[in-house]
């Protein structure tokens, strides 16, 4: 018997990085987990690792019909949902002066609209006492060049952790946020040229009080804590950044 035996969880963007580590932790502790993502190949590879307690649903969080289909799968396969980890996101970096409307719209469609409607569509299936965890970022309280769109989107999610909690608490559902610092998941390499990513990573390590990146597993532990164990915590943001924004 694991700590989360009998519990059902959805992890959006659960095919890689922080989402996959969280799905793994939950499965290891006995939960049934539904992961989502846009790439079937990524989801298939993740399922091989996660085993029989996991299922995958392909879909784009920015497309509301995909979220409706996800909600139907949750209803059919789980009945009710005990934890929702809203993790899917992209980290496009754009200098303010040259940010295009297309880049702005894509980032907000996935990171903000996608997160908002993921919660709205799955909320009817959340059980009493369920936990929702939104994935923000330390970027939401920092002024880092080229992150103006990304950081603003994460700040919007930080705000939603408070306002959505207000509307869901009458059903006993808590909404909180986990705010990762730098975690080496390949997200930086996807967002910038390799050399710039290496330079950025070296700067992050040098400036971090713990002189290292966080691991996906460390964020997963915080997300699981907020979703299941933090039963008197609502509307909060748990920062997991080696102290970078706190010390
Ligand atoms: P990642 O790229 O491994 O994970 C993101 C996941 O989201 C991927 O599986 C991807 O397929 C999925 N995804 C992206 N767009 C999607 C869409 N439209 N529909 C469905 N799925 C989609 O990167 P990660 O570092 O694990 O990031 C996970 C979350 O953590 C993101 O929200 C990110 O902004 C946040 N975060 C990461 C860091 C970091 O340093 N890695 C720091 C702060 C916050």
TrEMBL record:
Coiled coil: none annotated. Pfam families: adh_short_C2. It comes from the Bacteria. Residues 7-181 form the Ketoreductase domain. Keywords: Oxidoreductase. The keyword NADP does not apply. Belongs to the short-chain dehydrogenases/reductases (SDR) family. This is SDR family oxidoreductase. It comes from Streptomyces lunalinharesii. The lineage of its organism: Bacteria, Bacillati, Actinomycetota, Actinomycetes, Kitasatosporales.
């Amino acid at each position: 018997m694991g700590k989360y035996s009998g519990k059902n969880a959805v992890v959006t963007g659960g095919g890689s990085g922080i989402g996959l580590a969280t799905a793994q932790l939950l499965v290891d502790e006995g939960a049934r987990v539904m992961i989502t993502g846009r790439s079937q190949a990524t989801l298939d590879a993740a399922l091989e690792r996660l085993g029989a307690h996991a299922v995958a649903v392909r879909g784009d969080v920015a497309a509301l019909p995909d979220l409706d289909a996800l909600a139907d799968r949750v209803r059919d396969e789980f009945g009710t949902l005990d934890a929702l980890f809203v993790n899917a996101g992209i980290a496009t970096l754009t200098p303010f002066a040259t940010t295009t409307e297309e880049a702005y719209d894509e980032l907000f469609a996935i990171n903000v609209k996608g997160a908002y409607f993921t919660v709205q569509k799955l909320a009817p299936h959340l059980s009493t006492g369920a936990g929702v965890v939104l994935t923000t970022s330390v970027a939401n309280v920092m002024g880092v060049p080229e992150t103006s769109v990304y950081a603003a989107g994460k700040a919007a999610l930080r705000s939603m952790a408070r306002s959505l909690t207000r509307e869901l608490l009458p059903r006993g559902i808590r909404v909180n946020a986990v705010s990762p610092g730098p975690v080496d998941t390949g997200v930086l390499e996807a967002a910038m040229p390799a050399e710039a990513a290496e330079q950025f990573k070296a700067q992050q390590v040098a400036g971090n009080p713990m002189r290292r990146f966080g691991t996906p597993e460390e964020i997963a532990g915080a997300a699981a804590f907020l979703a299941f164990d933090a039963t008197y915590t609502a509307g909060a943001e748990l920062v997991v950044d080696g102290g970078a924004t706190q010390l």
